[in-house]
Design brief:
single chain, about 850 residues, alpha+beta, seven-stranded mixed sheet, six-stranded antiparallel sheet
Length: about 850
Amino acid sequence: MRVPVSWLADHVEGDLPADADEIGEAFVRVGLEIEDVHRAEEITGPLVVGRVLEITELTEFKKPIRYCRVDVGDEHNDPAGDDPAGGTGGGSRGIVCGARNFVVGDLVVVALPGSVLPGGFAIAARKTYGHVSDGMIASARELGIGSDHAGILVLPEGTAVPGDDARPVLGIDDPVIELNVTPDRGYCFSVRGLARELAASLGRDFTDPAARVAVPAEAAESWPVRLDDAEGCPRFVARRVTGVDPNAPSPWWLRRRLLAAGMRPISLTVDVTNYVMIELGQPLHAYDASRLQGPIVVRRARAGEKLRTLDDAERALDPDDLLITDDSGPIGLAGVMGGASTEIPETHEPGATIDVLIEAAHFDPATIARGARRHKLPSEASRRFERAVDAQLPPVAAERAAQLLVEHGGGTIVAGRTDVGAAPVPAPVRMALDLPDRTAGVAYARGATVQRLTQIGATVELETGPDGKGVVVATPPSWRPDLTMAADLVEEVLRLEGLDVIPSVLPSAPAGRGLTAAQRRRRAVSRALAEAGYVEVLPFPFVGDAVWDAFGLAADDVRRRTVTVVNPLDAERGSLATTLLPGLLDAVVRNRSRGLDDVALFHVGQVVLPHAQPVAMPEPGVRVRPSAAEYAQIDAALPAQPQHVAVVVDGEREPRERWGPGREAGWADAVEAARLVGRVAGVELRVTKGELAPFHPGRTAVLRVGDFPVGHAGELHPKVVEALGLPPRTCAMELDLDLVPLTDPRPVPKVSPYPPVAVDVALVTPDDVPVADVADALEEGGGELLEEVRLFDVYSGAQVGEGRRSLAFSLRFRADDRTLTSEEANAARDAAVALAGSRTGAELRG
């Protein structure tokens, strides 16, 4: 939110501090965040108002260029007016300009030779396009008073005369304060709200701009309106103005304030609605009443409906969208953007007039927020509606806009005002009079609580409680729907009294406590994966149903059972993730789109797994501590949130270099990442064959601790790769860290002083026998003497027969108390081979 200091000064009694930084500090004292203080851009040299006398189109160049004769006043005009390429001369200056948004007779701002514009842009007379350009006609951005650079700045007639100093006309010396308005302070998205906060901070009286607007009583309707969804739109006000001159220019004071606020002036009707929105905080919309068909109806969208919005985009509507409609169908996305069918055209024939219907409505914040995010259509209106707007403002804002149109557009307000629905009535809040003092640990001055609550606009009454102590009964103002309990009132008193006066005492930290075992394990896992070449990312934690379809999950797959977010950031992904893979795979696609072909990413984070049978979440009050039963029900209602670790890898795992051709990433890399996580966690993961979407059924490994599965790794299914736009042979791994038992991170190693005996065996098995099963049988059959089983070779061919393969294992035996004899090692080997043969059908290779 950008606001010029002069606009704030209109509503705060007394002179404001001369230094804009002091004003910024005053806002900070009452809890607002200052983004920047924009002071006047330094402009040196002559900057004057000029009038365009003549325009010559230079058509011999590739782009449109104009040569203009501009009257800049007797003091600055060139008496000779000579131009080597010709021109009228006669006491004017010739200026070359590429803009086309002005005509002969317009007032413009001219930077004469010798002036320096913001950014060190020096102006000098120079020959260009065959003419001498004796100065520059400037745009708002070049002057540092706005961001519009689509054309030069045209001043309204009567603003000044040629030769006048342009600085006071432009208001260049008026600093602009930019604030970051947090979601809980929606009323500060207006000059009205900010001036109120500034007055409270400076201890000044506040003049409410809404109180200056006289709203006459009107019995008749301005336009028929029906609310079919009173929850989404509790109140709708319409005011009609006829005979408005659409070609009338906006007054310069209004345009200047819009420019300072970061908005581009467009036309009188648009500028008036924008000005009132910034001044009061109530978004407005103006309809061309001649294009409306029948009564206005506010309702939800129906299946198959579409709307072409003012940005000329046709949008498919969702049943949750709140619409403004007439007999022709949707004419606006409520609280977000109007429709093109009832737009007031920008150009009109000279002498034409228009019939304007002004809409000032109150909408449900959550509905507007969902609609704006669903259509990816943030607007100045939606930013205010989704933070809650004063429900009493609609008739005031509509009247203010109508009066401005009459004053500057020559219109006539039609008798009658439509006001359907009702504004919600704020509920009184009770609070102990001394609660702010007890909360802050500060003895505030007598009457401070009542004074501060009155400053925010609350109606305050004092009562005596049952204990004989004072009680404040405060009815919040209509623009503060966030004040619903005593704690909210305490916060208001504390911030207005000054958070800096509250003593700060650091609690003493208990000694001897550090990270928990689970926290140490999480850090160790992250560090180990990073050292192995994986890059940690923080993916988007929300998913939509489309990803489960792309994964090929069955309809009854438990991963489809998700927790839906009430107010999602992205309407297409409105549920909490039950797996880390969707976010990681999105990161892969995004990195590949930016030219990064070899990707190895990991993430350690929580997933949310709702219960199969949901438990109702209780709503305990805030006056007393929840009971043990309520705590138990809260714990039972919360979904499980285990910590997972996942990796995704594709492309070259080992890059091509002069010493070799490199190696593409494969399923074995994903399995090795899981083994690495297991080793860091202090367990040895068993890897067995498995199947689980979205992995390739023939290249999927189940990760186990003992016999219990804790995760999966492998190559993604080709259909999944194609559906998500991933590179071929993308591999991934995900395991549940919470299912991995915590072990002592510093076990005492057991080292035998006696030498090992290594024995190699080659076993022939059918192709479909998992290697892990054979290894498990060898390990169990080898008994206590077997220290390690390692597969070092796999052979399939004619020597072992079709459908069979040879697995070569190295078995290492060792005893703790003696040197093994060959007979002991061979006996242990034979026992291991025998058990493997009985379980898996393995035979010693001859």
